[in-house]
Write a structure and sequence with these properties.
Low-confidence stretches: 1-33
Largest sheet: 9 strands, mixed
Helix content: 25-40%
Number of helices: 13
Distance between the termini: 47 Å
Structural class: alpha/beta
Number of strands: 20
Radius of gyration: 24 Å
Shape: globular
Strand order of the largest sheet: 3-17-5-16-13-1-12-6-7
Length: 530
Amino acid sequence: MKLSRRNLFQAAFGAAQVGLLARYGLPTAMAQSASGRPTKMLAIYLVGGLHWESFFAPMTRAGIQKFIPPAQGGRYAYGYNPEQVEHLDRSPVDLLSPGPVRKLRVPVYWNWANPADEEGANPVVNNAQVYRPDGYVWANPRYKLYDKAVLLVGADQGTAAHASGLIASMSGVAGSTFRAPAVQAVVANAMASRFPDRPLPNVALGGPLPMALGLPALANPTLLPSSASVEPTLSDRRAGTWHGLRARQEVPDLAFDGTPMSGTVPATAVDAALLKAVRRERGTSSAGTDGYLEQLYDTYKGASRTIRRDMLSVLEKTPAWEKLKADPAYPEDWMACMGYRDACGKMDSMGDYAFALQLLKSDLVTTVTLRGTSIEGFTFDSHFVNGQITHAQYLRIAFEMVGRMCLEMSLTPSRSDPSRSLLDETLVYVYSDFGRTFPKVGSDHHPATCALLVGGGIQGNQMIGGYDERMEGSPMGIPVKLVEESGDVVTRTPNSQDIAATVLGAYGLMPGKDFFIPGGYGIFDGVVRR
């Protein structure tokens, strides 16, 4: 195994402790302070590559007829006709306009008069489909979630491979390894000095880790596979491990070279002895060894502060699903089914959304990355025969789940700013590996993808981009307006770098100052609030 800094840290401490490296005392980038900007991120990774076009409808009438199968399927509603496509706000739809900027619109599978209806036949498609309720959460006029969402359409991932596509979605640059830090890590790093009381800046609940390449180690991801993982890794509650070692006293905070720093460190006797011992090793070997030792030294200081915070008690007192369940249409134990209840699953089978809510509501974190699926863990890498048909059913359910998560956040007041909601202070970034070949030609990997942004810092009720409907098979994206690094506004086909830069732009981060993405990038014009 190549002896990299990352490998050494993981071998010594495990992935959870790597995220604590240099939590205090290292330089961090400063985010611009601006009213309305988010200060947190929830990144939801929907596994396997998505048929975005089966849930959203960014095409013209001619494009729908060319690329989308006609409405069919009965209780397994699949495909759609142009007549089904509506704006989520129910304003008139112009299906002759090619875009690239339109209101959010979808093929409507639900019954507007009774959104819970799962038995009636839809007369709009000559009763070829039975009503399906999933997805209505985005259109519900009581909450108007569409006003907080924007879909970026037709970005070229530069790859159609799973691992490379995920790295592109997280960092903007496709490849077998990270060549730029994940957007989650950039945001965690940028917010660290503004929110020093968030002990875990970058948390991953599963899936590929959002790496902090080239950033201070405080931005590295802490892996917490479940709420149960907090107790053995980030608390001193286990008596067998911590018996007689819990007592802490404030000792002077010294840098690795012994220079006094402001404040103190809440150290146990073991911590204090280890810090002293590591300082003594400075200068006994090479500069590279000193670099490793300094990182390890800062780990002990950061871990002491985190454990003293007693995160476990904070999380135990923090509710997950709390506000939305007051609406009888959205029970906490929601279950979704397909067809004649041929396949059913509860909400918690789609990902640890409840734990993500606790972390965000507790104010212990800056970014949370959640691995999401559909019911019973269905992932979207649907190569099997008629996979696109099954995919469409499960995708509607998955987006219903994402929408309910966003509604809960919109109803929850921010702990740091009660005038805003948790959703106002959080940018929800929904992404996948890539897109998939359009339904009439199957369900293979396809580099043209989309990204959904919801919450703070963006102008909602928009779809920006589209597909080149002159193509055959599965089209790539059409040109959109982008604000380049230079400040110039250009019109070109978007790529994964542009999505990453747009995500970071929502936080007021500046290209070239707060982040850098290889290969050049622009920000989708009209998405980020000025």
